[in-house]
Write a structure and sequence with these properties.
298 residues; alpha/beta; Alpha/beta knot; 2 domains; six-stranded parallel sheet; 9 helices; 14% strand; globular
Length: 298
């Protein structure tokens, strides 16, 4: 991780409160494993003392970070840190079905459930390939109080360099399920079933379409929501469409509806990070109060 600013944002806690899931303590500031500093540089602001701190010339720091040097052979880079990646969120451990009348939950299951906050708002990304968009969506989800991010196959690594920079440290404080260890549509459907989430799928709406088709039950305001954003170019994947279409055959699983943002201007679509931010805000607590406040001001 290269640069004092991003190291402060990740290791210094970012000035906000994080959410642990599955019994973890709240994610705030933490010490880097190794901190490399330029000869006269100070440690990044707000970062706890590293397990090991070493001094090295700027050229060495640039090589460590995989960055190019200037024509003079030096860079303005003053700090490079080696940090642990956060543990992946285990959304699949959240289940309301274990409390059904047909089976009594074990003491271990009860204890674990008591430690896991309710999952009410989950963002799922299906093939969002641009790491900048992924990072921006992580940052927005944390800022708007969403409970987590689920990355389906084809989505950029949420802890890659570009994603981390765009997220401004949020990937260490928002529960995230990456896509390198078996994330799947099948698992996501089970998460929705366990948490009682309805699906809202961001889909462009043609002008001649008067009404979107729905699969399964209609979403209920009393339930939580899983907002699904497809890839920048082709939208929802074929696997995703098939998985969501299967919900009509299971009355216990969540309902599905398509949602689109009305656009009065002459643009065909919005950037996926922008569309995601608009929809997450509209579905967040406080959105209605915010709109009413604006109306009073205008």
């Amino acid at each position: 991780m290269a640069g004092s600013t991003i190291i402060s944002e990740v290791c210094g806690g970012g000035g906000g409160k994080g959410k642990g899931r599955g019994g973890e303590k709240e994610k705030g500031s933490f010490a880097p494993r190794v901190l490399f500093l330029a000869p006269e540089a100070e440690a990044p602001e707000g970062v706890p003392k590293a397990e090991l701190t070493l001094r090295a010339p700027a050229e060495v720091l640039a090589k460590l970070a995989g960055l190019a040097t200037t024509s003079q052979g030096a860079t303005s880079l003053s700090a490079v840190a080696v940090v642990d990646l956060p543990a992946e969120a285990e959304f699949s451990s959240i289940s309301i079905s274990s409390f059904s009348s047909s089976s009594a939950p074990s003491k271990e299951g009860k204890d674990k459930a008591e430690k896991i906050p309710p999952l009410r708002r989950l963002l799922a990304l299906d093939g969002v390939q641009d790491p900048g968009n992924v990072g921006t969506l992580i940052r927005t989800a944390l800022a708007l109080g969403w409970d987590g991010l689920y990355c389906l196959p084809g989505t950029a690594d949420p802890w890659g360099d570009k994603s981390v920079r765009a997220a401004r440290g949020a990937a260490w404080r928002l529960p995230v399920r990456g896509n390198k260890s078996g994330s799947s549509w099948g698992e996501l459907l089970e998460v929705a079933k366990g948490a009682g989430l309805d699906f809202l799928v961001a889909e462009p709406r043609e002008e001649e379409e008067e009404e979107e088709e729905e699969s399964g039950r209609a979403p209920s305001s009393r339930r939580g929501v899983c907002l699904v954003l497809g890839s920048e170019g082709s939208g929802l994947s074929a696997e995703g469409r098939a998985a969501l279409a299967s919900l009509k055959n299971d009355s216990f699983l969540a309902g599905v509806s398509a949602v689109s943002i009305p656009m009065a201007g002459e643009m065909e679509s919005l950037n996926v990070a922008t569309a995601g931010a608009v929809l997450m805000f509209a579905l967040s607590e406080g959105a209605e109060e915010f709109v009413r406040g604006l109306e009073r001001k205008l």
